[in-house]
Amino acid sequence: MHSALSALVLSLPLAAFARVHADSGLHRRHAAISHSRRNAYQLTDHYQGQTFFDGWDFFNQADPTSGLVNFLDQPSAAQAGLAYVQSDNTTVLAVDDTTQLSVGQNRNSVRITSKKSWNNGLFIADFFAMPHGCSVWPAFWMVSSTAEWPNGGEIDIIEGVNNQPSNQITLHSGTGCLLNSTAATLNSSITNIHCESSPGDDSGCSYGLSDPRSFGHEFNMQAGGVYALEWQDSGMNFWFFSRDEIPADVTSANPDPTTWGTPVAIFPNTACDMASHFFNQSLVIDTTLCGDWAGPAYSTSGCPGTCQEAVADPTNFNVAQWKVNYISVYQ
Ligand SMILES: *[C@@H]1O[C@H](CO)[C@@H](O)[C@H](O)[C@H]1NC(C)=O
Ligand SMILES: *[C@@H]1O[C@H](CO)[C@@H](O)[C@H](O)[C@H]1NC(C)=O
Ligand SMILES: *[C@@H]1O[C@H](CO)[C@@H](O)[C@H](O)[C@H]1NC(C)=O
Ligand SMILES: *[C@@H]1O[C@H](CO)[C@@H](O)[C@H](O)[C@H]1NC(C)=O
């Protein structure tokens, strides 16, 4: 996400988090494994199924990135069929795809923020599907709940606009944080090394992934997959696994990133002091339309007409849905 996010910096009570699926069998297995493996990750937060929304707040103010959306509060979103959990435990976050609007009107959508925030950890998100299409700007990201943006940082794990062919992973920071581009050659290309951002200069430092399965239509054609972020003081590593390539240790909730091969994005702490630039990060899932990124990018996206015209037509949003299997956090 871009632009002035200070308006949404909320004071989040750290104690008010939901621990879904506190499965005792799982924890016994973790306890056993920690004897045989050094630094084994322990599951601390698991968001899935009928209690998914207990761990999240619905953001219902004007989109800070100027999108043509009305973000609904939880009762309104539930009533409109835009935020619900299916009987198979899939959580759905959708954009209204039934209402014909006048050109220039805002379309209903949702944006949720985790009640909890973190300073490190292993974040694993399994999505069956993600929103995409003309005017659509989906994002799964993290942002500081206590500092005024961009101080405290922003971590964009899944993000793109319009018909973008693959995912972009981006960090935004305060002054004095660079992506050390000499550190690795990955299956991605670095698009910018300056993480420092401001409302007027908010591209951040980023990688464009090469795998078309990492985003949008092709992501959904594979029934989605898993994004993983390992965030330590030494830096951040990101992996993407398409549905049929998800490591067994991820599925069995016993993840060991040292076995996953080369990340798709690495942000080392050599040219950026990670601990001082990124802290108290809450998770966010949202879909906005047009706004500060999808809007200006629209004319070169191959999409017809104008971005506002696309928003008015509900048939453009039939697949503008996040389908979440689960999000897990390990420490
Ligand atoms: C959904 O989750 C609940 C709670 O963990 C579980 O009891 C139920 O079996 C799950 N349903 C399906 C279809 O997986
Ligand atoms: C890069 O991506 C291609 C296509 O997805 C894959 O076959 C290859 O193994 C990847 N290489 C690395 C180093 O991950
Ligand atoms: C970038 O990383 C390389 C290799 O790890 C290291 O030698 C170099 O000092 C780093 N550059 C900066 C500016 O920290
Ligand atoms: C992070 O959040 C905690 C709890 O709200 C707060 O005490 C602390 O000052 C915050 N850290 C920074 C660096 O702002």
Task: Give an overview of the whole structure.
The chain is an alpha+beta fold. It has one domain: Jelly Rolls, CATH 2.60.120.200. It is built from 7 helices and 18 strands. Strands 1, 4, 5, 8, 14, 15, 16 and 18 form an 8-stranded antiparallel sheet that branches. The chain is globular. One 2-acetamido-2-deoxy-beta-D-glucopyranose binds next to loops.
Q: Helix count?
A: 7
Q: Which architecture would the CATH scheme give at its second level?
A: Sandwich
pLDDT averaged over residues = 89
- The CATH topology annotation reads as Jelly Rolls
Low-confidence stretches: 2-38
Overall structural class, as computed from helix and strand content, comes to alpha+beta
How many domain modules? 1
Overall shape: it is globular
- Beta-strand residue fraction: 25-35%
Distance between the termini: 26 Å
The small-molecule ligands in this entry are: 2-acetamido-2-deoxy-beta-D-glucopyranose
Major sheet size, sense and barrel closure:
8 strands, antiparallel
Tally of extended strands? Answer: 18
Radius of gyration: 19 Å
CATH class descriptor: Mainly Beta
Residues in helices, as a percent range: 10-25%
Series of H and E elements: HEEEHEEEEEEEEEEHEEHEHEHHE
Question: What labels describe this entry?
Answer:
single chain; 331 residues; alpha+beta; Jelly Rolls; 8-stranded antiparallel sheet; globular; disordered N terminus; binds 2-acetamido-2-deoxy-beta-D-glucopyranose
